[in-house]
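On clarity, I found the account of how folds are encoded harder to follow than it need be. What matters is that the chain and its backbone geometry are given together, residue for residue. The format is easy to grasp once an entry is in front of the reader. For illustration, here is how one protein appears when written out as sequence plus structure tokens.
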Amino acid sequence: MTGKLDLSYGGIVRLATTVIAVLMVIYHVWAIAFGTPEAVWFRGTHLLFAMVLLFIIHRRSGEAEGLPSALDFGLMALAVAPILYLFINYDYIVNRIFYVDDLTTADMIMGTVMTVMVLEATRRVIGWALPITALVFMFYGLFIARLEPMRMLDQLYMTTEGIFGIPLSVSASYVLIFVLFGSFMERTGTGQLFMDFAMSLTGHTAGGPGKVSCVSSALFGTISGSAVANVMVDGPITIPLMKRSGFPPHFAAGVEAVASTGGQIMPPIMGAAAFVMAEFLGVSYGQVVLWALIPAVLYYVACFSAVHFEAKRRGLVGVPREELPKLGEVMRVRGHMFLPVTAILVVMYSGFSAPMAALAGVVACFPVAALRQSTRHYVTWQNLLDACVDGARNALPVALACACAGVVIAVVTLSGLGIVFTQFVVHLSSNYLLLALVFTMIAGIVLGMGMPTTPAYIIMTALLVPAIVKFGVAIPAAHMFAFYFAILSAITPPVALAVFAAAGLAKSDLWATGLAAVRIAGTAFIIPFMFVYEPALLMIGDWPTIIMASVSATIGVMLFSAGLHGYFITHSAYWQSGLLVIAGLMLIDPHFVTDMIGVALAAIVVFTQIAAKRAAVAKIEIAVE
């Protein structure tokens, strides 16, 4: 710490926040480096740190401002007490027989308090949507499924199948260290590197600032894992640039929202839900990265194409080259800051765990920043402490969301609701897979409207994924389908958090921005259906099939975007746009017959537009003569 020690109430609170955040980081780093403790201790300590920090930082209104009151400290004590109770009575907890030994009065009191405080803490940090969802499931368990209150409390609090279940384990093992890596990268100037790198590559092309948004958001999104955070970092730079180049405010905001949202599915470092998926499926994180790679590329091809064709339609040009950073200069000055990301990839693909790889990236950040004069000023003790505080604070929403999602999982598991829901979906869809997928898509978008991707995906995994697996869908495809739509909810009106953030920066209408975002990401809503029907898009199958499917889908995505934005070689008539949309759909579906139909339809548009363009040029030449 620098400067004179502030012993005012506010100064003491800030000091306590820093100390607790740093201790939280040190504990998780120690656990990764030397082996995680037993589940109850590790997950409990993770939640303990999160609860203490949360009630210091977040007021009753949920806003992270002002100073904690006596009520906040009282609630903090109530939140901490049940966790300490588990630690103190650890031998009793691990030796009792779940669902057979009755709970003591103290067990029931502590279980009730723990559940209530998890709901309150989650409400403070991410709003009402997830706590209300958890309450609805608890109501179902108690009053519809007729579960015994004692058995439900047992599942929620005394086992590792409820609040302290797999979601919280993922938050403790994976999420905090990757969020910390993002904070370290940001504090060492990597955000500026990503922006300058993207500007030097694409800024001069048609609609250049929009393409800069796509590239920089994909880069930054891989280390932030949050659509809204991505918008707030990139948006203040890219949105004004897009508006200045001629894009209307609602389109500029839509581009930024879509580009930022895709960061959660962009390897090598994806959103927190990807780690949950790896844990649920019992596979390595590297395997999830392979499954996600082609869909992520297709997502950004769609976004990039939408910007290009909209810019062409409006006659927009890029930023003059003399106003842009030079790629060689960018790499000379800040290119070394790609090394921490490289370190993660090297360690991860050398056979070490994803948390160990992230730890390697974290450890590399400040030493790498010290290598050159351009970034050496970031290397200070104060900046290091601030990075730790940022990492701990940014991990709170995921930690509490995972704990609250554990309540839902506990009820689903204990009541057998997953089986009931599976039977309901199968019956409702009349044994048609497409209908089941549509229901799952709608449920994912609705669930994700008010909550982060991770809990939305967890709930879909419990309720909906088993239903589509029952139709014969490959398990990875079913989980990726749910994951994809839990993410897309961030850009789907009426509640679209990434759109709200971008519209605020662009000062644009919310509905116009939301509709623009859906049009820009239109292809993204189709891709999940395609990889369900053709798992080659998830790199499942032989390489010739994977390559053909990828090439076909990439061309299809570009044609579909061209159709939606009314421009291909030249401005498209309505019938040409319609043919492009159909051609795109045919090519995204990677089968020989549909590909041939798509190629034929695209050829019709190409020939007619080339003819129209030549006629227009000839007309101009005649007029000039």
Remarks:
- The chain has a mean pLDDT of 87.
- The chain has 30 helices and no strands.
